[in-house]
């Protein structure tokens, strides 16, 4: 019946067919049906292929993969990538997550589709602690972010500004060396030493530039240190509201409440420092010849670079907060990792110290102008960043529209993690990937480019959202390490195996804090 109907319509529309035999008509119809079915299937296949999501492990209804998530996510993600490939997905509550573990996929999202993947996926705690997303690290991609990043990179962390406040850094590094000098022969906790030194250095650069301010800021530094440790803790704490946005209203774990309380304390400390500085300017207290700190630069900066709008006090505070939060823990962690690796590689320690003696001499103190000549130390830092990147999954990206990555669909608003830790240990990309071999960066200098162009080495990320603090991070890690190794010999108190295990807290920490015993080696008294 249907056959007759189709044939009738074909015969009516094409009169010449009318003259064909029934067999020929049937053959023609079957051919048309086969061709159109084939075309239909190809089209559907192409469409579904485009729409297919990456493979990945199944989870449970509602909670998804949440109950199976292990504490050490970079290692777990590396294992899942072995099974599912360099791009895989899973669900955490309502949230679709995708993990990328190959240089070519990193290139796709940070070079080829950089703008689409330039949004962040701010957690509840991060949103609160950045005054509602007013900072650089967590704010959405757009003109606001661009303006703030320009202020940060060009106005605050410019080479000339960093040079201008070198004395502030030097003061604090000398204090750290003096502290170790008083503890010669006793075990020193390197994580605490590195963290206190880095926090002191950063806070001193932020607002300790004038003598009066510095005396007052001593108290602010002490108060801030207490609240900052809690801020770091809450930023790394898993929060159910991040996986089920509908639960944000209820704040079941009280993370938002706690973050608000911490912000209030931090804010009042920063406010007190700012008010003091504004008052000094009003009272015309002389600041001639005194180093400009970041607060002073920000107070003198009146307009945002692109839009020419007035910069607000909230924006100034958000930038200051980014420097403390982004710069302290990461840098301190890298100092601890580099020391741990060197302490367990006697040969590396000897090479570091020989270079320091050749470049600086035993009778002098380390100065920042020595740093560019310390090539072996630089290779040590690069190797520590390769094996133990401080932010091993980078800061998650969030695509602003549905896109294709590695041939799979990554829908809008997916949380995209880049497993830099796994890429930087991939045996396909690195010789002896698990060995600490600084020499690899002396021989193949292109491997050590971490400015975002070398997608197999991305400790600072890549693309337009890559780390904004590299110039300061480079200086601080090398300067503190050089000073510690130049002044002291160090012996670890733990064995290598247990000492090099990792703990993921958003920042990649040493599971067992490094304890090391210093003995004096330089003649120069600080
Ligand atoms: C060794 C130390 C450091 C490491 C390993 C590190 C690593 C990173 C990484 C991996 C990112 C995310 C990049 C991406 O998503 O592609 C990032 C972002 C950021 N870092 Fe760092 N960082 C360090 C030190 C610093 C310092 C000292 C500062 C501040 C002075 C800083 C400020 C920032 C800011 C503001 C962002 C957000 C950039 C944006 O979203 O536009 N970091 N960092």
From TrEMBL:
The keyword Nucleotide-binding is annotated on this UniProt entry: no
GO molecular function: heme binding; iron ion binding; monooxygenase activity; oxidoreductase activity, acting on paired donors, with incorporation or reduction of molecular oxygen
Names of required cofactors: heme
Pfam families recorded: p450
Keywords: Heme, Iron, Membrane, Metal-binding, Monooxygenase, Oxidoreductase, Transmembrane, Transmembrane helix
Superkingdom: Eukaryota
Transmembrane parts of this sequence: 23-45
InterPro entries tied to this protein: Cyt_P450, Cyt_P450_CS, Cyt_P450_E_grp-I, Cyt_P450_sf
Binding annotation for heme: 467
PANTHER family: FLAVONOID 3',5'-HYDROXYLASE-LIKE ISOFORM X1, OS08G0547900 PROTEIN
Family: Belongs to the cytochrome P450 family.
UniProt-recorded name of the protein: OLC1v1029387C1
